[in-house]
């Protein structure tokens, strides 16, 4: 059963009109009867249906589905350790990940990730792009969000935009409510909460230049 209403589908179609290059949504889910204790996935089905619905709204989009247990080799290849996970992939894997169902305000995060990957345009300032080119070590950005947070999508999108600019950067949107143990590990008491390389942590949807400064601190 589709998750999107017809009105929303039409709005998304309009949003996708200027997509350029193909984008693949690589989805890791839980289809098998086998489940890993403690990793029962309550939103996997809805996430899969949502991605299939989205992929039908543009001829530039396709979807690839993998069972996290049955296809563990593929999951390991992409570095996926939790589900549901959606990878927004262009001609290459830019390290853009969404963990959890991107509903609520995070629906915009998904749509914008698709657009920047398709257009290969992060829409960041030239100054930020030049600074990001200096990064030559792995940088992992984790942005913890909740679906009711109006500021979280801006922070998650910023991480994805940074990842698009440098192959050494990967960026995850993580629904804190779906991964409570991870949220507890990083002391997520307010969102958006951003963790960079386990060493830098901050809260709030910072402007581009301040977000950049925090990432460069991890470098």
CATH level-1 class: Alpha Beta
CATH architecture: 3-Layer(aba) Sandwich
Q: Structural class given helices, strands, pairing?
A: alpha/beta
Low-confidence stretches: none
Cα gyration radius (Å):
16 Å
Order of helical and strand elements: HEHEHEEHHEHEHEEH
State the separation between the terminal residues, measured CA to CA.
Answer: 45 Å
* Biggest sheet architecture: 8 strands, mixed
Describe the structure.
The chain has a single domain (6-218), classed as Glutaredoxin (3-Layer(aba) Sandwich). The chain contains eight helices and eight strands, in the order αβαβαββααβαβαββα. The protein has helices at residues 6-15, 44-55, 72-78, 106-119, 126-132, 152-165, 180-185, 208-218; strands at 23-29, 61-67, 85-89, 96-99, 139-145, 169-175, 193-196, 200-203. Strands 2-1-3-4-6-5-7-8 form an eight-stranded mixed β-sheet, sandwiched between helices.
Q: How would you concisely characterize the structure shown here?
A:
The protein is α/β, with parallel strands linked by helices and about 220 residues long. The chain has helices spanning about 5-15, 45-55, 70-80, 105-120, 125-130, 150-165, 180-185, 210-219; strands at about 25-30, 60-65, 85-90, 95-100, 140-145, 170-175, 195, 200-205.
Task: Describe how the helices and strands are arranged.
Blueprint (H helix, E strand, L loop, with lengths): L5 H10 L7 E7 L14 H12 L5 E7 L4 H7 L6 E5 L6 E4 L6 H14 L6 H7 L6 E7 L6 H14 L3 E7 L4 H6 L7 E4 L3 E4 L4 H11 L1
Parallel strand pairs: 1-2, 4-6, 5-6
Antiparallel strand pairs: 1-3, 3-4, 5-7, 7-8
Helix pairs in contact: 4-6
